[in-house]
Amino acid sequence: MSGPTENFWTTLPLGRGVQVLNRDANGVAALAKPAGVLSHPNEPGDEPRSLLQARYDLDTETYEWAGAGQAPHRLHLLNRLDSATSGVILACADAGLAREIRAQFKRKQVHKIYHALVFGHPALSRQLWRDRLAVVKRGEKIRTTAGGHVPAECEMTVIRAGGKESGLTLIRLAPRTGRSHQLRVQCARHGLPIVGDQTYGDFARNREFARLAGMKRMFLHSQGTDFEYEHGGKKFTFAAHAPLPLEFQQFL
Prior knowledge:
Layout: H1 6-10, E1 19-23, E2 28-33, E3 55-57, E4 62-65, E5 73-77, E6 86-92, H2 95-106, E7 111-119, E8 126-138, E9 141-146, E10 150-161, E11 168-175, H3 182-189, H4 203-213, E12 220-231, E13 234-241
Parallel strand pairs: 6-12
Antiparallel strand pairs: 1-2, 2-6, 3-4, 4-5, 5-6, 7-11, 7-12, 8-9, 8-10, 10-11, 12-13
């Protein structure tokens, strides 16, 4: 059983600023997505702003573009990041293997680590957050609030705390569950809104930070992902890490 050829990867129509972090012989790949880039196009005209500048099938969660021969190339998206979130996003060139890894996401067998720059300082340097959320989807829009019936768990660890003047803290988030917008809502719920979060954050502080810093982005970054999978009767381990953008530390 062989993976995609080298031509497959050399013709990958990467979006603006997107980079390949890691790939293996079976066709599993990790890409680094910049903030502001879409995981996939939602409507016609979105391709230039997406992970790949190629046609995307929403039903099969698959990118497709012309190959060197008759058959088109396909890359199957394994997970998504909000457009405002940067970092590791996974894909796979093998349809069957993609289905298996997507199932692992549902079984919570994929380990993910995020870094976030937040307003405020946690009372403790390490906490286990357990919350109940309500997730509502209307069309393509998802909104999540605290106080529902969906359990959400996340381990929070302080990486570096800024001084009183900055009022900022860099934290590590290790989610145990994978709810939509979970980390953004939990940070806000625990008094640590993510800098630049225009939906769940502190709007007044966001405006002041953008004025002083001269930049607008949400400071949430998918830093690392790792998991094991079986393919062709053998077991494999896959891991990828996206370097933390410099702006996450320059304000501390």
